[in-house]
Structure formats: C-alpha cells, structure tokens
Design goal:
Length: 155
C-alpha cells in the first residue's frame, strides 16, 4: 500500500483486494521480475528487504523482536534495522543510508541505497501502485539494444 493512499488502511479487506489486484496487473506487465507494492516516503521509493534478498540470491533472516533483517550469502552479510540509517556488514564496518529503513508490515530500505550498494533500480509500473526491481546492467543493456535498433532503423 502506498503511504500516500490514506483511503485504505493496511490489513483491511479493501486494502488487501487493492493490493492483490495491483500485484496481479503488475506481474502481467513484468513477468519474471520482482514486483512489489510501492512504498514511497518524502519522494524516495523503498524496497522490501525480503524482495531484494530473493532477487539477488541472499538468505533472508528476520528478527521480529529487534525488527532487524539480515541478508547473507557466503561470508557476505548486511544487517538492517527498522528506523535506523545504519547498515552493519561482514567487514565490521557500518554503512549509512541516506534515509532510515522503515517498517510497514515488513522492513523497507531506501531505493537509493539499493541502487548504490546492489546495482538495482526501482521502477514504478504505470497504472498500478506496484514497482519492479531491475538490475542496472539490464537497464543499460536494454538502452544499448534500443539505440542499435534506432540507428539501423529497425524500430
């Protein structure tokens, strides 16, 4: 549920129906890509940590008591806590996000951090209140292909 949509409260039948309808429409438009309910706060798109983990092949562990999510793969890990800008990594160093992680039924982190740290961008799907997570390399390659087609007059 988008934060700006105050007409539907999370967990109500209306919000669940809207979520299911939007997710189904978005999935049809973006097959094979990780689609999630858009969360935007102060002009920043946020990504559910669990969606990011699944997309990038990280193991996801959620600690409900501490409201902390850990992503791990081999020796690499990232730990995010709700309402905190700090990110703990395996390098025993803390990274800092421009904005704090947020919690709305699950943990969300800022899209700007996801792009900088993981090379993925959040793209809104028009006509829905959903977004898709896309690897920046895929976006770059698709732009190259489009440019080649336009140069050759094939589009």
């Amino acid at each position: 549920l988008a934060l700006g949509d105050l007409s539907r409260e999370p967990g109500t039948a209306a919000s669940m129906e809207a979520f299911a309808g939007g997710l189904a429409a978005a999935s049809e438009q973006s097959p094979g890509l990780p689609v999630f309910q858009t969360m935007e706060k102060q002009g920043e798109s946020y990504v559910p940590v669990e969606v990011l983990a699944d997309h990038l092949g990280y193991r996801y562990v959620w600690n409900e008591t501490r409201k902390t999510a850990v992503l791990s793969r081999g020796r690499e890990f990232y730990s995010f806590t709700a309402h905190s800008r700090d990110v703990v990594t395996e390098k025993e160093e803390s990274l800092s996000m421009d904005r704090a992680a947020d919690f709305l039924e699950q943990l969300f982190i800022p899209g700007s951090f996801v792009q900088k740290q993981f090379g993925c961008s959040v793209r809104e799907i028009s006509g829905t209140d959903c977004s898709v997570l896309v690897d920046d390399k895929v976006i770059e390659r698709s732009q190259d292909i489009l440019s080649e087609l336009l140069e050759k007059g094939g589009y």
